[in-house]
Amino acid sequence: MKINGLELPTALQSALKNSIWMSRGDKYSSRWHNKDHIDLFSLHFPMIDAPLPELFDYDNMLTVNKLWTGPKDILDFYTGTQSSEYPPGNVDPLHTVIIGGSEPDSPIALDYRSTTPKVVYFCEIEYVSYWVEAFKSIEDMLIALELVGA
After folding, report:
1. Exposed, middle or buried: residue 47 (CB in 10 Å: 0-12, 13-18, 19+)?
2. Tell me: the pLDDT tens digits for 102-135?
3. Three-class SS of residue 34?
4. 26 vs 17, 19, 94, 143, 149, CA distance in Å?
5. Rounded to whole angstroms, how far apart are CA atoms 36 and 128?
6. Which of 21, 73, 84, 145 is deepest in the core (most CB within 10 A)?
């Protein structure tokens, strides 16, 4: 399974195929509504004020990732600001795949600029847009959010 030429990690492909990835969302929007699940999500995505998590199915990932080939003004807004305080701060659209959202207009993505793609999310901190690392890998995310066993 590839998006924008980037192979999805095996663990994500498996979670998508086995319906584990979408298991927390409702069947209509795939957004999470269970307070306990959202509280767990908030622990790992602390810069999000009002989380409304959503993990995209493969078809939605394909659709949403067209953003990276969209108008330059949208692209410029969503690339973030490089930061050592909030690493990585920015992303390279050619090395990123959006896999969900932490709230509306705050994507969650895989950042392929390292050997193992890291899970990052888009947020605003003191009126500046950043991409912040949430997990070192998709496997870590699946375990931390209790989508699979440790």
Report:
1. middle
2. 988 899 999 999 999 999 999 988 888 899 999 9
3. coil
4. 17, 12, 31, 20, 21
5. 29
6. 21
